[in-house]
């Protein structure tokens, strides 16, 4: 039903247009935001899947070519086309024509080459970027049963489970195929094969291929055999130890990894969704078969790595909030348009609009607090060793091309016991740090740590223990240090702070990279706060999470050490604690006085009247209004000065805008008192005894709060 012609219909039309247009645009913006996120996610996942398939096909081609080369070489020996004397030249020709081959060799079974010589082999392998001809029997007796590659290779063709080659000094994947010399060349009369031809594919080359995939900063790829044995993994010790995916699944009690191993063993392709109970990370695992060797390739892509436009998403959410509030105001106008002269209806609309603005403010606060779950700027969160190795691989490759020394990785752990803010920009942190050094590899490396952000004379470190544990030496320190870390207080009191403990090793000339020792923590999910007391408490703050992170930082200086790795982008280990300000504490201590002042101003506005009997009853006079306003102003001003003194912010803080609006409200109330007592008639101030300013006070006040909230956080 449309109101009758007049002001009611005009208000109805404007309000209806506001509501329809605002809600329509909000719905469209919501659809755009959701579609953009879904499209980005789908495009990213599709690219990862395509890259996985392409990498698996590339590996399959390489392995198939290598097996064909091995079969061809064995056929040449068996047919007599290739004489034993010409094997060396043939092997050299083979690796020159196919540089991706790591090694190639011909190994004879005992006494097959010469009745007077038990073992004989010719093995051309790449060492130090050059090929060398070796004889495996100089290193070990390859005919012994424990060397399965020879036992299998002399019986049948196929790929051997990866192992560490003592002669090649590398992790290898071998294709071996048997051969039998023609009768005129053979020195044996039995029907056994005379030897095996093996073509080597370096596991390092497998890793280089899968490591070239663009999987974000912490995503990684793994390759495994049909038995689940790992061929390539960011944690290379797993490969060296001969571990399988089944072993990892059992150790981590992860049913998804077991299912992946089973799917890989069946040479299937597909995708699994995976949630790591230890780290809390959600990921997709794409897998594809490598038929040539009955291997499989799996790629782990983390949800946190999706290249979403976070800032655009935030702006769209705030835009949707603005549009919903405008639409809500339109609905209030629609309801009020039928009875514009009714005070209860008008007051209901005033209160409703105020609540809408209050809802908008709180919603933007929630959006801002959700930023606490984002990775720190210019840093990468670390939650597992595989992600660390994947992240550092690019740096290690770059270091090989620079005049830097070989990176030395030192496992480092942190446990924080207490944090306190001496000043707004100088947190005091105390706790424990420990490191593990390999013996004797790190005997010439100094033991120690230091914090580059520490304030001089306020940095205490004391060695607590030092002991041997197997082939490692563990050293632990207690520390209490004051960190100078300038914080941004522009959003105070709706702010999130990350206390960052930067950790350096004193041997700056040695290219020492500190890596988190994840094995020292039972849970490493950031929200489980690894490395902190379970009952940790910091007054005025809530600990949201704690985590390790790497930050590539270019110091634009070599610190006087020529060829220092720190002269470029060096991976700096940091331990981070994300703090959310306790909004209740901040509200009570800083914002309640403002709202009390606002209620007092509103009370002054309510008693403003032109009616003499009510004015005398309330004691209303312009001079009393001015006196009360001045008193409120000085009280608020002192509180404002105290905040500036406590936080020493270089910029205007969010809370200060509330003070500025309150100052303006004091002026507005004073001006209203003047205009109300003016002799000349003014419809805005005199209508129904100052009703319009009274109705507008709370909506305009909270509307101003909402506008500055949008301005600060947009």
UniProtKB/TrEMBL annotation:
The chain crosses the membrane at residues 12-32, 318-339, 345-365, 587-607, 619-641, 653-675, 695-713. The keyword Isomerase does not apply. Keywords: Membrane, Transmembrane, Transmembrane helix. This is Uncharacterized protein. It comes from Vreelandella rituensis.
């Amino acid at each position: 039903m449309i109101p009758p012609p007049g002001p009611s219909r005009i208000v109805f039309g404007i309000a209806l247009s506001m509501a329809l247009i605002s809600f329509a645009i909000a719905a469209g913006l919501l659809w755009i935001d959701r579609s953009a996120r879904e499209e980005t996610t789908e495009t990213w996942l599709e690219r990862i899947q395509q890259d996985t398939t392409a990498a698996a096909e590339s590996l399959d081609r390489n392995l198939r070519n290598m097996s064909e080369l091995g079969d061809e070489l064995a056929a040449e020996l068996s047919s007599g086309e290739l004489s034993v004397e010409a094997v060396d030249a043939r092997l050299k020709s083979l690796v020159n024509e196919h540089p991706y081959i790591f090694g190639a060799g011909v190994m004879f079974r005992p006494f097959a080459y010469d009745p007077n010589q038990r073992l004989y082999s010719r093995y051309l392998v790449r060492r130090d970027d050059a090929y060398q001809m070796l004889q495996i029997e100089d290193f070990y007796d390859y005919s012994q049963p424990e060397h399965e590659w020879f036992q299998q290779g002399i019986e049948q063709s196929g790929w051997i489970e990866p192992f560490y080659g003592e002669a090649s000094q590398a992790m290898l994947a071998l294709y071996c195929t048997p051969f039998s010399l023609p009768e005129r060349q053979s020195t044996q009369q039995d029907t056994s094969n005379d030897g095996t031809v093996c073509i080597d594919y370096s596991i390092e080359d497998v890793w280089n291929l899968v490591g070239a995939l663009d999987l974000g900063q912490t995503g990684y790829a793994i390759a495994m055999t049909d038995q689940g044995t790992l061929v390539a993994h960011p944690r290379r010790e797993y490969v060296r130890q001969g571990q399988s995916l089944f072993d990892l699944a059992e150790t981590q009690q992860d049913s998804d990894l077991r299912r992946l191993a089973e799917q890989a063993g069946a040479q299937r392709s597909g995708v699994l969704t995976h949630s790591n109970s230890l780290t809390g990370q959600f990921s997709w695992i794409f897998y594809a078969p490598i038929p040539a060797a009955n291997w499989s390739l799996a790629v782990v892509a983390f949800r946190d790595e999706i290249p979403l436009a976070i800032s655009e998403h935030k702006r769209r959410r705030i835009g949707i909030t603005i549009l919903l509030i405008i639409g809500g105001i339109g609905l209030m106008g629609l309801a009020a348009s039928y009875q514009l002269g009714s005070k209860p209806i008008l007051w209901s609309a005033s209160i409703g609009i105020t609540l809408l603005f209050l809802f908008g403010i709180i919603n933007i606060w929630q959006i801002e607090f959700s930023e606490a779950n984002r990775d720190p700027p210019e840093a990468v969160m670390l939650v597992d060793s595989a992600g660390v190795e994947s992240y550092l691989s690019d740096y290690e490759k770059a270091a090989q091309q620079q005049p830097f020394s070989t990176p030395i990785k030192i496992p480092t752990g942190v446990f924080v016991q207490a944090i306190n803010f001496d000043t707004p920009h100088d947190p005091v942190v105390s706790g424990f740090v420990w490191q593990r050094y390999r013996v004797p590899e790190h005997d010439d490396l100094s033991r120690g740590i230091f914090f580059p952000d520490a304030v001089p004379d306020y940095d205490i470190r004391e060695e607590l223990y030092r002991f041997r544990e197997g082939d490692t030496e563990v050293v632990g320190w207690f520390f209490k240090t004051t960190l100078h870390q300038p914080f941004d207080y522009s959003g105070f009191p709706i702010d999130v702070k990350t206390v960052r403990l930067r950790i350096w090793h004193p041997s700056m000339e040695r290219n020492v990279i500190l890596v988190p020792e994840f094995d020292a923590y039972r849970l490493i999910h950031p929200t489980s706060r690894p490395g902190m007391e379970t009952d940790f408490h910091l007054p005025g703050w809530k600990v949201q999470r704690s985590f390790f992170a790497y930050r590539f930082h270019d110091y634009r200086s070599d610190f006087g050490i020529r060829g220092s790795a720190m002269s470029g982008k060096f991976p700096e280990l940091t331990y981070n604690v994300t703090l959310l300000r306790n909004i209740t504490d901040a509200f009570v201590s800083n914002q309640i006085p403002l709202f009390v002042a606002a209620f007092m101003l509103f009370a002054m506005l309510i008693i403003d009247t032109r009616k003499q009997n009510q004015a005398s009853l309330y004691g209303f006079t312009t001079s009393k209004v001015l006196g009360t306003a001045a008193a409120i102003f000085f009280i608020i001003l002192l509180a404002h000065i105290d905040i500036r003194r406590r936080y020493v912010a270089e910029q205007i803080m969010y809370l200060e805008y509330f003070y500025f609006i309150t100052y303006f409200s004091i002026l507005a109330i004073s001006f209203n008192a003047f205009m109300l007592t003016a002799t000349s008639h003014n419809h805005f101030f005199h209508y129904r005894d100052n009703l319009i300013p009274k109705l507008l006070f709370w909506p305009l006040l909270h509307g101003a709060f909402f506008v500055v909230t949008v301005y600060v956080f947009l």
